[in-house]
Design a protein that fits this description.
The chain is an alpha+beta fold. The protein has a domain of 139 residues: Butyryl-CoA Dehydrogenase, subunit A, domain 3 (Up-down Bundle), CATH 1.20.140. The strands form three sheets. It has a four-stranded mixed β-sheet with strand order 1-3-4-7, with helices on one face. The protein has a three-stranded antiparallel β-sheet with strand order 2-6-5, with no helix packed on it. Strands 8-9 form a two-stranded antiparallel sheet. Helix 5 runs antiparallel to helix 6 and helix 5 runs antiparallel to helix 8.
Length: 308
């Protein structure tokens, strides 16, 4: 894997950064439990950013770069599934794309709404259906900083897809790893801004050695999550994808705890935007079985499944 961005990737990220400037500042005070903006989703679609993985010259690494960059925003936007899984579908549909683990369908589903295309990961196959209003319950008060809904159940009639379940799991884990890396980077930036301004004992909190060491450790961990995600995106290998998702979930747990400690619980309130990143991390790190599920997937990929 070449860690350097190529010319096309640099151009795409420069264009994306320029387009995202109006959405870089987080809404505070009277802010909703999650931040979203249809104008952002429309701008991404019209600019063609969500179609990069379908271009063989750009591929999954460019898709992962885009996912990571979008996750740094305080606004939740449906990108990971559309960018990584959308190009594999014959019938993508016009609504959001949602991913559901058949073993854990009772979990809140990100961006689930009427008209959403729901792709279901099963043990031996992949299926899909278009969500209707009677198949789910919206959860407007859920504390996940995403728009989420809960399925009443999986419909009996679903369309089988010509998509391998292993490939879907790999792309899902790559998306999770890249999105977690971006969320962690956004949360770190928000935390650094706070401790640089907040005064205690006559000087900024950020000048205390213990805080500086913990922030430096967080930066190293986040860098590791980023590069593991990019490596997994480059290889699309089941073992690499599972390890990237596993490390990202572990890093999210450790760093989120520290970030909220540094803010003295202010990050848990609507008066500070930190929750817009860490609450999203809480939901992401539980998908596909969470840390245990990713560890099991990595072990199966590297050493073979355990005997029954």
């Amino acid at each position: 894997m070449n860690p350097s961005l190529n010319q096309d990737q640099r151009a795409i990220l420069d264009a994306l950064d320029a387009m995202l400037r109006p959405w870089e500042n987080a809404p505070v005070h009277d802010a909703p439990l999650f931040a979203s903006d249809p104008a952002l989703e429309k701008a991404l679609a019209e600019a063609g950013f969500l179609e990069v993985a379908g271009d063989p010259d750009l591929g999954t690494v460019t898709a992962a770069l885009l996912i990571e960059r979008l996750a740094r925003l305080p606004f939740a936007v449906e990108a990971a599934a559309s960018v990584l899984v959308g190009p594999l579908l014959d019938d993508r549909g016009a609504g959001p794309l949602c991913l559901v683990d058949a073993r854990r369908w009772r979990r809140p589903v990100r961006f689930l709404c009427e008209g959403a295309r729901v792709v279901v990961l099963e043990d031996k196959r992949v299926s899909a259906f278009t969500a209707s209003a009677d198949q789910f319950r919206a959860e407007p008060n859920a504390l996940f900083a995403y728009p989420v809904a809960t399925l009443h159940g999986l419909p009996e009639v679903r369309k089988p897809l010509a998509l391998n379940s292993t490939e879907l799991r790999v792309r899902w884990q790559v998306g999770l790893a890249a999105e977690c890396a971006g969320l962690l980077a956004g949360a770190l930036a928000s935390t650094v801004a706070h401790v640089s301004d907040r005064q205690q004992f006559g000087r900024p909190i950020a000048t205390f050695q213990a805080i500086r060491h913990r922030l430096a450790e967080a930066q190293v961990r986040i860098n590791g999550a980023y590069w593991l995600a990019m490596r997994a995106a480059a290889d699309c290998d089941p073992g690499q994808a599972a390890l990237a998702a596993l490390y990202a979930a572990e890093t999210a747990r450790t760093c989120s705890y520290d970030f909220h400690q540094f803010l003295g619980a202010m990050g848990m309130t609507l008066e500070h935007p930190l929750h817009l990143w860490t609450y999203r991390l809480k939901l992401l790190t539980g998908e596909l079985g969470g840390v245990a599920g990713h560890a099991r997937s990595a072990a199966d990929a590297l050493w073979g499944p355990a005997p029954d």
